[in-house]
User: What shape does this take?
Amino acid sequence: MKKLNIGIFMDDFYPNINGVVLVIDALATNMCKYANVTIVVPETASSEGDDEKPYDIYRVNSVHLPLTEYHLGAPNLSLRKTDRDLLAKNFDIIHIHSPFSMGKLGLRIAKKLNIPAIATMHTRFDFEFRKYLKSDHLSRILIHEIIKVYNKCFACIAINNAMVKVFEDFGYKGKPIIEYNGTELKLIENPEEKVKKINKMFNLKPDETMLLFVGRINEVKNIFFILDVMKRLKEKGIAYKMFYVGTGPDEEKLKKKIKEYKLDDRVIMTGKITDREILSTLYYRAKLFVFPSLFDASSLVQIEAASQKTPAIFIEGSVTSDTVTNNVNGFTAPNDLEKFTDRIIEILNDEKLYKKVSENAHRDLAKSWETISKETYQIYLDLIDKYKRSNA
Assistant: This one.
C-alpha cells in the first residue's frame, strides 16, 4: 500500500518548546514509521538538530518578533520558491496546527494540490488574546479572523469533548472529530531508587507530601491561584512541598509573591527540566498534580502525570478537566480559593479514594503516542477517501 505523504504545518517549532511542538513532534516521529512526513515551520535563529529528526523539516522565511524568542512565518517573502518546493512534496493531506501564517500557507498548498486540509485547535485563543490585548472587542475580532481558517478546512480535530464547544462558540460551522493527546512516558522502573535521588536533589524528606505543577510560568495558567491555595494550606496547618517546574514570563512576579507569602520554605521553583527521567520521577514522587488552569485545552502534562499514577486536581468545568471524571480518574473542585483548598485536604486525608483514582488515572488517561498516531493516521485515510468521493 502506498505510503501517505503528510504535511504538518505549525507556526512554532524547535528550538522553542511548548505543548503543541511536543504534540507534532510525537505525531511525526511515530507516523514516519509508516508514512512520509514533512513538518513545515518558520525559520528560527537556529535549526540545529533538524537533521537528526526521523521526519523531514522544511523551514520557510520568517520575521523575528521583537522582544520574544518567536519567529513569524513569512512565506510570501519567497512565495514562488516556497510554493514550488511544497507542491513538489505531493502531499496527500495537510494537517495544520495553528490558524496563523503557516496555517494559511497549508490551506493554500492544499487547494493547489486539490487535497484535504484539516486542523487541530490546541489553544483557548480567547484567553490569550484577552490577556495581551486587554480588550474583549479586539479579542472577538481576532477570534472571528482565525475561525475563518478553521471553516476553510475540510475537517477539524478537537482534543477533547469540551473543545468541541469552544469550536462552536468561536463560530465553527462543522462538527469536529475528537482525538486525544498522548504521552511517550512510561511508568518508571526501580522507583524507590529514583525517588531517593530526587529526595536528595531537592532536600525532601521521604515522607513529605509533594504537590506539583509543570508548565509555563505564566499568569494564564492560574499559577497565582495555586500559590494562594498553598498559603491557605499552610494557614490550615497542612505540611507539604509545592514544586513549580518550568519557565515563563511571570517567574519574577511569582518569586516575589512567594517571598511576600513567606512560603520560601514550602515552594520550590526548579526552572526548566529537560531530563525526562528526572521529570518522570518528579511526577511519580508527587502526591497530586495541581492544575487549575482555565486556559489550557488538554495539557500534555496532566497525561504525563497520569503515566506515573499521579492524579490531577482541576477546576470543575474547565476545558482541560474534560478528560477526567471526578473521584474516578481525577479530581475537580470549584473555582473558589477556600473550596479548592479544602478539596486538596480531603484528597490527602482519604487514602482509599486516592489509591483508586491514582490507578484509574493511569489506566484511562496515559495513552501512548504510538496508539494516538495510529488513530490519527486512520483519520487521515478516512478523510482522504471522503474528500475524493465528495469531489468525484
Remarks:
- The mean pLDDT is 94.
- The chain has two domains: 5-182+369-390, 191-365.
- The first strand starts at residue 5 and ends at 9.
